[in-house]
DNA sequence: TATTGTTATACTCTATAACTATA
DNA sequence: TATAGTTATAGAGTATAACAATA
């Protein structure tokens, strides 16, 4: 799924809208987008934005990984990884070094400048977190962090790739008679 | 956001990656995307996907609203609203009726079929919620719902439009010396 | 023949700017 | 002149396929 299809939140000032949208999806979306928006701003001058950040942090690890390894780990396409690394390399944040064991592959490593930037961005992100959670008191904040983390690790465990079919089918969709017949996977192409 | 800028999660099976990414942003992203993915699947045969659902639910309200009112409330562009409504109308879920008070405007109302579909989708979404929260016990689940909702309403209150500058500046970014000079708002256009 | 990385092409979604018909 | 809705055009981002070098 391209992130393009993330639903836009009803952040309207209409009280009625809030009441109607006061479900988990709406609340999760508002909080998440708030975080993403601030994170985007923090990473505004980093090539590739948030995704560039993830690549950079991966490159800043102890063991240098190949492009493909990073791509697969982050779930980005090989071809996109090329563009991302081009920009990061141009900015002097990472370097492509030949893999001594495989002359096809390149090992990605962060430069000193890259390491310094990662450290700085991580500090700023920690502040963004605090700001997003500012509505909660200290103990509740910790409780929330704990709950989200538990949910995330569970999701990541049972559904690492993210197969949507599984989720819905598990949930017992069959019990609800669908009013519309379901020719699955046939998104219409809205003209043009 | 276009959701284009939603960062891709590190859902890799590498334990090291999880440790490194075990921050709030990562966890929020995994949980949110899990929900979105399932929601997308549920709304696969609904024209416009999740956004079409939001339009449809708005149209299913008691008071019929104009296209522009719905667009502003949902934060979607006027022009996109046209396409969305075209598809929804084609599917027989909504109708465009002339506004008696203003011959330029159209009042959007849901058909019987539209109302039935909304009810069905809401049922399915409630199941998706339960599935996403299945890692938690009953009391913790309620606690999580409560915490997210409180965070969301607070964010929606202090930052309804979602100005990213505010969030970061509030947070006291100035204390951290930026290693890179900051020509703000100058996202590079990565060639092509 | 399969795989790593690169490049080129097409497609989707969105944003912007016109255009019409009303006000 | 301004507004509700529509249409057309251009741009950003992504996915797909083809390609070169190496295994």
UniProtKB/TrEMBL annotation, chains A, B:
Domain HTH marR-type, first and last residues per copy: 21-153
Region annotation (Disordered) ranges: 170-192
Upper lineage: Bacteria, Bacillati, Actinomycetota, Actinomycetes, Streptosporangiales
Matching PANTHER family: TRANSCRIPTIONAL REGULATOR SLYA, TRANSCRIPTIONAL REGULATOR, MARR FAMILY
Keyword DNA-binding applies: yes
Protein known as: HTH marR-type domain-containing protein
InterPro entries: HTH_MarR-typ (IPR000835), MarR/SlyA-like (IPR039422), WH-like_DNA-bd_sf (IPR036388), WH_DNA-bd_sf (IPR036390)
Biased composition (Basic residues): 182-192
Keyword DNA-binding set for record: yes
Domain of life: Bacteria
Signal sequence range: none
């Amino acid at each position: 799924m391209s992130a393009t299809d993330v639903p836009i939140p009803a952040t309207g000032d209409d009280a009625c809208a809030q009441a109607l949208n006061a479900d988990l999806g709406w609340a999760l979306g508002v909080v998440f987008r708030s975080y993403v928006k601030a994170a985007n701003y923090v990473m505004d001058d980093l090539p590739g934005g948030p995704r560039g950040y993830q690549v950079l942090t991966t490159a800043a690890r102890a063991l240098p990984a190949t492009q493909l390894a990073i791509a697969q780990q982050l779930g980005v396409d090989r071809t996109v990884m090329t563009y991302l690394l081009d920009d990061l390399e141009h900015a002097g944040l990472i370097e492509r070094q030949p893999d001594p064991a495989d002359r096809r592959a390149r090992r990605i490593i962060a430069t000193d400048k890259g390491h310094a930037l990662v450290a700085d961005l991580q500090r700023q992100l920690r502040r963004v977190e605090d700001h997003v959670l500012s509505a909660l008191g200290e103990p509740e904040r910790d409780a929330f962090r704990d709950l989200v983390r538990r949910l995330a690790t569970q999701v990541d465990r049972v559904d690492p790739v993210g197969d949507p079919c599984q989720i819905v089918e598990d949930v017992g969709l069959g019990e609800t008679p669908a009013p519309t017949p379901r020719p699955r996977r046939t998104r219409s192409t809205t003209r043009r």
